[in-house]
Specification:
2 helices; mainly beta; Cathepsin D, subunit A, domain 1; 10 strands; globular
């Protein structure tokens, strides 16, 4: 089970461990974004620091409705069941966990500042 917390701004946050191709790992706090259908979005500076492998770009509609082109990378997330290869978008702002990473997991959020966030595997 992965545990996190709800911020004073009512954002559900979990710790995310990203593994670089070199094997180095970096932890960061990531907001769970149920409106994001991808796997993971990371700040561009972190993508650069980890030297993730670029695989192209894609157009995305942001939360404010603006269309923008984002660079796409392959990365590895150390997740509940172990390392998992995922698509990573480079963004401005903080790290995000998308719904693709949460597929086959149960997300529970106690929506209040300091509330508990849990992510646990479903029995499918």
């Amino acid at each position: 089970m992965i545990s996190g917390r709800v911020t004073t701004g009512l954002e559900a946050v979990v710790s995310l461990r990203i593994r670089a191709p070199s094997g180095a790992e970096r932890d960061c706090d990531a907001i769970i974004d149920t409106g994001f259908d991808g796997f993971v979005a990371l700040p561009a500076h972190l993508v650069d620091e980890l030297q993730l492998r670029p695989v192209g770009s894609l157009w995305a509609i942001l939360g404010d409705g603006q269309a923008t082109e984002l660079m796409l990378f392959h990365g590895t997330v150390v997740w509940e069941a172990g390392p998992r290869r995922v698509d990573v978008l480079a963004i401005e702002g903080g790290a995000l966990v998308g719904m693709a990473l949460l597929r086959t997991f149960r997300l529970t959020v106690d929506v209040m500042p300091g509330g508990r966030v849990t992510v646990e595997p479903l029995q499918v």
